[in-house]
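Can you give me the bound-state structure? Components:
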Amino acid sequence: MALYSEKVMDHFRNPRNVGVIEDADGVGEVGNAKCGDIMKMYLKIDNDIITDVKFETFGCGSAIASSSMATELIKGKPVSEAMALTNKAVAEALDGLPDYKMHCSVLAEEAIRSALKDYERKQRGEDVPEEKQHDEDKDENRFCCCTTDTAGE
Ligand code: FES
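Here's the bound-state model for the whole set.
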């Protein structure tokens, strides 16, 4: 049996929603301090609905496929549904990830949550400088073995 599902390979080779939203309503960045993997999510939200989402990932193929699938899963959905998205749901939508690659899907869940938290902070009128948007407490206890970059695509 192949290590990666066809869906993983498809989303890795043709990632959806890669890029930047300049006037995003919420931006979230999470990373792994040990290996340097970084995932950044940008959200456009209108009337509680996620109308657009883009990502940049500096990470492995599973991280790119997870980011891509996660953006597809939350686009057009209410904020509450996006907030409830789990890495398990992302991995299932990809028809599975190898056990040792499950942590890559966690990065997608956390990047979306971080962007949603940023959106909620902005809704409350709290302005967060971009350099503080990186969710540093999520950086610990992960490991990584390889990197591929979607930034600049
Ligand atoms: Fe997958 Fe680093 S994010 S190995």
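A couple of observations. Residues 35, 37, 59-60, 62-63, 101, 104, 107, 144-146 surround FE2/S2 (inorganic) cluster (CB under 6 Å). The helical segments are 6-13, 61-74, 79-83, 87-93, 102-123.
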